[in-house]
Specification:
The structure holds three protein chains of three kinds. Chain A is built from eleven helices and no strands. Chain A is mainly α. In chain A, helix 1 packs antiparallel against helix 2, helix 2 runs antiparallel to helix 4 and helix 8 packs antiparallel against helix 11. Chain B is of the alpha+beta class. In chain B, the strands form two sheets. In chain B, strands 1, 2, 4, 5, 6, 7, 8, 9, 10, 12 and 13 form an eleven-stranded mixed sheet that branches. A two-stranded antiparallel sheet of chain B has the order 3-11. In chain B, 55% of the residues lie in helices and 18% in strands. A six-stranded mixed sheet of chain C has the order 6-7-8-3-9-10, sandwiched between helices. In chain C, strands 2-1-4-5 form a four-stranded antiparallel sheet, covered by helices on one side. By secondary structure, chain C is α/β, with parallel strands linked by helices. In chain C, strand 7, helix 6 and strand 8 form a beta-alpha-beta unit. Classes of the chains: A mainly alpha, B alpha+beta, C alpha/beta. Chains in contact: A-B, A-C, B-C. At the B-C interface, helix 1, helix 10, helix 11 and helix 16 of B face helix 1 and helix 2 of C.
């Protein structure tokens, strides 16, 4: 096992956070069983107070998940020299069967936490906590995924064997390689760019329409969801290539390295923020119904929409920057 | 804007509240800073040494060829160099002469080396700062050596290494080849090992394979091997220290938790009043969050700054006893100051995050004080 | 007006140490008047005021503030309503030691996030009304009992609430200071505020500004009448 301080930090952090999430879930179960907003009993009062604790725990959880996502990737990147064949995080994550699943789980938990906090914030504006039951069922799902992530992460670090030969990003993110990574690279850059920019334009248009009319929130969410997923393909297909100025280099992790000014962190941060807030607009659409939220939901959706649009624009600007200002030509060559 | 203004008021109140209880908070800040100081020192030190090692290794030959007999390192015939030179892709092969010298007087091991060029007389040497400091059997600027045949040899120190290089040169002695062979007993025609430079780095592994096939009793140590070993070793060492430290870390967390739960009557009263005049649970929680943030920030700043000074200005003096190797020497060196965001992020995850989580439940318990307790206090 | 219907409060319900503080209280409190609640210790005055002021929730029954029911409002909303509608003057004043008079007065307004300048000006005005503008920077523990009470009143008024609730306001005051307190209360009533006072001091419920008297005993309403 690789025993670096960052690995210890990740494992102990995950254990702590996982423990707290389990505790929050236990409280959540009690809430699901005994909640009765009309009652003035002491049990009800205690449960209402517990909701503050859970909100706070999940707020911390969200920050930790984002933090640990970046720390995890950076750690994988940092230890790559201990594996023959690895030149960056792509190789380190490929060292055993737990690396990439851990990454995907961390990403998923982070996104779900973000959505949960949006729901929580909205629910708290309603005088009768109308979304409480849905919220806490959702919370149980997140906790289950978090525990799974904990387990995978632990197995990943535990099973690391430095003398195993792994592949690097050049091999993983190569059009001839079978699998999702290879398929992403095989998408022709021009086609990927067209789809990507069209989706961005569509998302912007839908967002502005939503802001002015308050309608089509669900469509906006779907577009953003698609944009979020496709952006990863776009990064692999052509966005990262422009940063590397090398037509065969498609790695989505190398842009996190200092030699590229760690631009990857900003890119992915805006991508996640845009995705979470955009999708949340649609989710809140589905939560419309309770009278106490009738006035609340549109306001929250509007704010989320603005944040989502801003994040998408910033992401696009970062992606466009090398396309416009560097001498490298990929599309249209 | 209201949100911003509200945070401003909360921070203001938090600062005043912390100041009003400064002595009680001081003990917490001190312990917290010490924890961060220790962890940061370990991280900074490890990384700086690792970077130094990396810088040094960058100049090293791509491969070292050593001869082994019964699994142990043995002297290598210089004629092996000719065999290796014939392999395609090999740039140059240079026999290297180096070894260890145990000084009975100082009970320490020193490294003796013959550099590629040595523009001094045979009885002259160049030494590191640790050598001069510790040799013991010194006559003016001449050092007594006991040669391989037990003959006493007096060598004159004509130059010493720059302090900047003390990390690697502290225990080093450079001398001319004939004197080296006399002192260390390496016969003519033999060398300690061979340094090989290859034309294309990517062919290292292939060439290494060819060398082993041509000279089966040798072992090849590539630069990449060394880098990988160092990386693993430094990571492992620093990780191990942190795990050993976990007992103290746990004690700190228990202390923090105890401090957070053990509110004085005055503090409880104050929270009750705040709830009574219109602050709700979320406001108290926000205040507690800022409190934790201020304490963590101060402790982080103190701890990291202290560690920076400790590692980069006093050569990590607190680690001396743990780090003195078999050489018995501890060099006085200056590491190149270098801190990166990754280290700070790791530190944050190891200290601030556990602290925040541990104090979360006590903070919440405080925040849910009944607003009407202040009425019932009458 | 404030309307209470069948309000009951049981502490530690279902446990061996259950205690019924209020039983079936039906009450209507008119606005812009001074209502005094009287009764011996343990009669439930303080509990009733806490429930009216959205500080505690009744075990059963309903409360209306105007046409808004506040009975089962979650804490967040109850606190917001309380902050906007009610100002409390506690029996022991409960000022925060170590802070200045000005800071103590401003604290209830912090969560609302009002602009600092506006808040400070309003606090200054209140201090002037209480004739305490020269003590703004003094620490509250250095004030006399009467001065502390005036600071407590100013604090209760910082959010410009409709209703002032005072719990045993004359308990630590001599006759002169109690008279001064009643003068302040009259002035507040003239300014359109509703005042609720809990007291077992005959000086209070015999005083002229008081409009209504509500009597409590063992958690029950025993009398509700206009003051003489």
């Amino acid at each position: 096992m690789i025993f670096s301080p960052a690995v210890i930090a990740l494992i102990t952090g995950s254990l702590l956070v996982g423990g707290f999430a389990l505790y929050a879930s236990a409280v959540g179960l009690r809430i699901l069983h005994h909640w009765d907003i009309r009652s003035g009993s002491e049990l009800q009062l205690a449960l209402e107070r517990k909701t503050y604790l859970i909100s706070t725990i999940f707020g911390c959880l969200l920050i930790f998940e984002l933090f640990s996502l970046f720390l995890f990737v950076h750690t994988a990147d940092n230890i790559h020299e201990q594996f023959i064949g690895a030149m960056c995080a792509a190789g380190s994550l490929n060292v055993n069967g737990y690396g990439y699943p851990t990454l995907i789980l961390k990403t998923t938990v982070f996104i779900l936490c973000g959505i949960w906090l949006v729901l929580n914030h909205t629910d708290n504006q309603g005088e009768d906590y109308p979304l409480i039951l849905k919220k806490y069922r959702f919370l149980l799902t997140i906790t289950a995924l978090l525990v799974l992530e904990l387990y995978f992460q632990f197995r990943y670090f535990r099973e690391m064997q430095p003398n195993l030969i792994t592949s690097c990003c050049g091999t993983i993110f190569n059009e001839d390689t079978a699998g999702l990574a290879g398929d992403a690279v095989a998408v022709p850059p021009t086609a990927a760019a067209v789809i990507f920019f069209t989706t961005v334009a569509l998302a912007l248009r839908m967002g502005l329409y939503f802001l002015t009319t308050g309608r089509a929130g669900t469509w906006f969410a779907w577009i953003n969801g698609w944009l979020f997923l496709f952006s990863f393909i776009a990064v692999v297909s052509f966005i990262s290539v422009y940063f590397y100025e090398l037509p065969t280099h498609h790695c989505p992790f190398c842009i996190l390295q200092p030699e590229y000014h760690a631009i990857g962190y900003f890119l992915y941060l805006f991508l996640f923020v845009g995705g979470i807030t955009g999708v949340s607009v649609g989710i809140l659409d589905r939560m419309k119904g309770p009278r106490s939220l009738a006035a609340v939901i549109p306001g929250v959706q509007k704010r989320l929409c603005i944040v989502s649009l801003t994040a998408s624009v910033l992401f696009t600007i970062i992606a466009l920057y090398p396309m416009i200002f560097s001498d490298f030509v990929l599309i249209g060559y | 804007m209201r949100w911003l203004e509200r945070q401003r008021y909360l921070i203001d109140f938090t600062l005043s509240s912390l100041w009003r209880r400064k002595w009680k908070n001081l003990s917490l800040v001190l312990v917290y800073s010490l924890v961060i100081f220790f962890l940061s020192s370990v991280l900074f030190f490890t990384r700086a040494i690792r970077q130094e090692a990396g810088a040094i290794l960058a100049e090293a030959p791509e491969m070292i060829i050593q001869r082994t007999i019964a699994g142990r390192h043995s002297l290598i015939p210089e004629t092996y160099a000719d065999t290796i030179r014939e392999i395609r892709g090999v740039g140059s092969v240079k026999p290297r002469l180096w070894g260890y010298y145990f000084n009975m007087v100082s009970q320490a091991n020193y490294t003796i080396m013959v550099p590629e060029t040595f523009p001094h007389k045979e009885t002259e040497i160049v030494v590191g700062e640790g050598v001069l400091r510790t040799w013991g059997s010194v006559e003016g600027n001449r050092l007594y050596f006991s040669a391989y045949d037990r003959e006493a040899v007096l060598l004159t120190v004509v130059d010493s290494f720059d302090d900047q290089t003390a990390l690697v040169t502290s225990d080093m002695i450079l001398m001319a080849e004939p004197m080296f062979r006399k002192i260390c007993g390496v016969p003519e025609g033999f060398a300690t090992d061979l340094g090989v430079r290859v034309r294309n780095r990517r062919e290292s592994d292939t060439i290494a394979g060819k060398i082993i096939r041509a000279l089966p009793e040798t072992r090849v140590i590539t630069r990449a091997d060394i880098q990988r070993t160092y990386a693993a070793l430094f990571d492992w060492r620093s990780g191990y220290v942190i795990v050993l430290f976990s007992g103290a870390g746990l004690a700190f967390l228990i202390f923090a938790w105890d401090r957070a739960t053990g509110l004085s009557a005055g503090e409880k009263n104050e929270i009750g009043i705040l709830k009574g005049v219109g602050w709700e649970t979320g406001d108290i929680l926000a205040m507690k969050f800022w409190e934790g943030g201020v304490i963590s920030s101060i402790a982080f700043l103190l701890g990291v700054t202290g560690a920076y000074g400790h590692v980069f200005f006093s050569s990590g003096i607190l680690f001396e006893h743990a780090l003195k190797g078999w050489a018995g020497l501890y060099p006085h060196f200056r590491l190149i100051p270098s801190v990166n965001f990754y280290q700070l992020a790791t530190l944050f995850a190891l200290t601030v995050l556990p602290y925040t989580l541990i104090t979360l439940v006590p903070a919440w318990k405080t925040a849910i004080t009944d607003p009407d307790t202040v009425m019932r206090q009458g | 007006m404030i309307r209470l219907v069948n309000i009951a409060k049981i502490y530690n319900a279902g446990k061996p140490n259950a205690f019924t503080a209020l039983r079936g209280i039906d009450l209507t409190i008119p606005m812009q008047q001074i209502t005094a609640f009287r009764g011996p210790s343990g009669s439930g005055k303080t509990t009733l005021l806490a429930i009216i002021g959205c500080m505690a929730r009744p075990t059963s029954g309903r409360i209306w503030l105007g046409d808004r029911e506040t009975t089962s409002l979650p804490e967040r909303f109850a606190t917001a309503v309380r902050r906007e509608t009610f100002g409390f003057v506690f029996q022991n004043y409960n000022l925060i030691r170590g802070l200045s008079v000005m800071e103590n007065i401003m604290i209830p307004a912090y969560p609302a996030g009002m602009k600092y300048r506006t808040l400070k000006d309003r606090a200054g005005e209140l201090l002037m009304q209480m004739n305490m503008e020269d003590k703004a920077a003094n620490r509250v523990e250095h004030l006399s009992g009467g001065e502390q009470q005036r600071v407590a009143i100013a604090r209760a008024l910082i959010n410009d609430p409709e209703v002032i609730i005072a719990d045993e306001p004359t308990a630590h005051l001599d006759t002169d200071m109690a008279g001064a307190f009643l003068e302040i209360v009259s002035a507040l009533k003239a300014a359109g505020k509703t005042i609720l006072i809990a007291s077992h001091d005959p000086f209070v419920f015999g005083a002229s500004p008081v409009d209504r008297l509500v009597s409590l005993r063992d958690g029950r309403l025993t009398a509700e009448e206009a003051a003489a």
